[in-house]
């Protein structure tokens, strides 16, 4: 069925896959902004946005009303507004960099997706083939390297805005990124120490990490989140800090910085920052799920292969690669969305940390903790794997 | 007054990690996430207005359908932002049920762009003819639309129960040859 696709030129294949992924990420980012408003409203005992509706959907008797109450169409209303609003360019800014900044924000946000696998299927020999744009061997490194480029957009935007608060915000952004990048990297090292067991070729790829979480046996089926809870915790906190989410959004911090580098932006350019932020969140959540949440395995100690075997008892086509692929993507997406819900839930629960607290947590708590964590697991892994 | 010094306990280790507090906070917000909503969806659902609410000032009629205002203009004088404009007028002799009343307003305008809903007009009115009732939303496209004229004021005000029936009493007294 897909033969014609695999016969295409690799570049065209890559383009098609890339477009497909972007077509998924963009709407999810849009839907996330909506979900954010809805979750905020529900947590604050409000119904949230629930008015916009497209006329022909309103004709569907019950379901249309349900969609309206869910606020689905506010995504389109928001997007349309963002697109068609006057895109003003303040007179005092450095025009070139001012326009460049949102583009620079988008590029790393969408590029990291290439290195993140989002599903798997089994070929006829029962070998696991991961689904992803680029099954890079350096997976994790690529994500770290590219995602930290995102801060350049904050710096550019702050500097090009040519005003005080945006600039302060971008300085904070870079300081925060540096502080938490360290502990984040140190926190994932034990995972890669463990998956690069003696006798296997060395790799930083996510495929291997998930493979290690889908092995039989107690230790083999254990997700790394259970095996290395401290790593998972440090990674999660650092993820919050790197994506500038509450309680670490001192960068935006409208109470003391007006809105930081968002201050001078409006309309579509602002929208790009927004989408970039959510894309970072989606990719970050995806990486967390891959590293600590079992990837596309449905439950701890129940790997995708086991689940497919169980389903095979009921569904005749359960072993078809297409079905397995779609199932794994669905499981992975579901988990990622649950993570994004966690982001929102935390956002509407915790107050923002002060900037000095952010720095203190980063350097005095997270960093020593992650070093101790690394030492402990390095010794433990050396003892276990010999 | 005795001063009670409350001892401030140092934070325990768990409290200093802040983690139990975060989990507690998440539990609280999750409860609210699924709790019934507390807000009204305004234009469709209206709040219940408590008695004694100071809404838009209106003119009222007595239970016999007669206008109560005698255009004494006290409200016009007392109104702090000068929102009220009254043109006093005579009552024509052919209105037999109102012969004891000397005057009635010919025009009565309240500029709702000026009104501050203070309620002084209601307080000062000797005839209990002007009331701030429970209408709370006033809107219009032009300045002129925001001025309530006499018809509008009576339409908004309607009829309120009366405790005195002042004009009836006055009529009875006159019929008995006693002007006051
Ligand atoms: S409303 Fe009352 S105070 Fe105002 S003019 Fe009429 S009678 Fe006098
Ligand atoms: S409520 Fe106050 S401001 Fe409004 S008309 Fe009466 S006296 Fe004037």
Structure overview:
The complex is a heterodimer of chains A (386) and B (180). Chain A is mostly helical and 386 residues long. Chain A has one domain. Helices cover 69% and strands 2% of the residues of chain A. Chain A contains 18 helices and two strands. In chain A, strands 1-2 form a two-stranded antiparallel sheet. In chain A, strand 1 and strand 2 form a beta hairpin. In chain A, helix 6 packs parallel to helix 15 (267-292), helix 9 (164-195) packs parallel to helix 18 and helix 13 (229-242) runs antiparallel to helix 18 (355-385). Chain B has 180 residues and is of the alpha+beta class. Chain B has a domain at 57-163: Alpha-Beta Plaits, CATH 3.30.70. Helix content of chain B is 27%, strand content 13%. Chain B contains six helices and five strands; from the N terminus they run H-H-E-H-E-E-H-E-E-H-H. Chain B has helices at 13-17, 19-34, 74-78, 120-124, 150-157, 166-175, and strands at 57-59, 84-90, 103-111, 130-132, 147-148. Chain B has a three-stranded antiparallel β-sheet with strand order 2-3-5. A two-stranded antiparallel sheet of chain B has the order 1-4. The N and C termini of chain B lie far apart (61 Å). The A-B interface holds A 39, 42-47, 50, 345-346, 348-350 and B 22, 25-26, 28-30, 32-39, 41. The site of one iron/sulfur cluster (SF4) has 13 residues of chain B, from helix 3.
